[in-house]
Amino acid sequence: MKILTDIHTHTVASTHAYSTIRENAFAAAEKGLELIAKTDHSISTPDAPHIFHFENLKALPSNIGGVKVLKGVECSVLNNKGDIDLPERLLKRMEIVIVSIHSVVYKQKNKADHTKTWLSVMDNPYVDILGHTGRNGFNFDHDAVAKKAKEKDVMIEVNRYTLTKENQKEVCRSIILACKKHGTKICLGSDAHYCDSVGDFDSAIALLKECGFPEELIINRDAKTLMEHLKNKKPYLEFNF
Ligand SMILES: [Zn+2]
Ligand SMILES: [Zn+2]
């Protein structure tokens, strides 16, 4: 299995990351990827850029070094009502929107509360992906969330960085199996904070194989499949490819 796009990458715009968009794109080209999404943190995390960063993404080309570049964001959930940290006027301009729970913004509570949070997030029509849901400490009802993600056509991310911790791998396995059960779309993200990690999906692919996960539900397996999905979800946007 070869995954030709990476839907979750950070640049120096999130100050806890260390590569530029150009370095990420050229690293992706070297690895034979067709597309990367630039998804720096939105405004509520301490490392985030100013909101002007997201206002001005049109300044970036849509193709860098032969690799398609989607201009997106990784938002943080703010509360269990599903509020996220970018205003609607900008969310509707983002080509891809990941929403994640970050402990620096959202305080850990209990399983019922985390489940309510994920279910509420999916009522926001601009949300494309639930990010690194397998991260430690934020347990939730995998079955209920995968079921609603299928209904809302929201993808659930299998996150490379989460899989670097062995105890989180078992949580990820359970989430993947819930997605398989409900026919929920997923995508693979490197969550790269340095360009060498862009497109590193070895651990995610190994886990998906162990789970017998159907390849047709991996929506970022190539740019064509991913773009068909996004264009269908975002008819109000004009994509450049
Ligand atoms: Zn994150
Ligand atoms: Zn991230």
Q: In what range is the share of β-strand residues?
A: 15-25%
Shape designation: globular
Helix/strand/pairing category: alpha/beta
Rg, alpha carbons:
16 Å
> What distance separates the N and C termini?
24 Å
Percent helix among the residues? 25-40%
What is the chain-wise order of helices and strands?
Answer: EHEHEEHEHEHEHEHH
Which architecture name does CATH use? Alpha-Beta Barrel
Q: In CATH, what is the class?
A: Alpha Beta
Total number of strands: 8
| CATH level-3 fold name | TIM Barrel
Looking at this structure, what is the CATH superfamily? Metal-dependent hydrolases
Q: Can you lay out the helices and strands and say which pair or pack?
A:
Elements (H helix, E strand, L loop, with lengths): L4 E5 L11 H10 L4 E4 L13 H4 L7 E2 L2 E10 L11 H4 L4 E5 L10 H11 L7 E2 L11 H11 L2 E5 L6 H17 L3 E4 L12 H9 L12 H11 L8
Parallel strand pairs: 1-2, 2-4, 4-5, 5-6, 6-7, 7-8
Antiparallel strand pairs: 3-4
Helix pairs in contact: 5-6
The structure holds zinc ion (2 copies).
Word description of this protein:
- This protein has a single domain, classed as Metal-dependent hydrolases (TIM Barrel, Alpha-Beta Barrel).
- It is globular.
- 32% of the residues lie in helices and 15% in strands.
- The two termini are 24 Å apart.
- With 241 residues, the chain is α/β, with parallel strands linked by helices.
- The longest helix is centred in the last third of the chain and has 17 residues, at 166-182.
- The model has no long low-confidence stretch (mean pLDDT 97).
- Strands 1, 2, 3, 4, 5, 6, 7 and 8 form an 8-stranded mixed β-sheet that branches.
- Helix 5 (142-152) packs across helix 6.
- 46% of the residues are buried.
- One zinc ion binds next to loops.
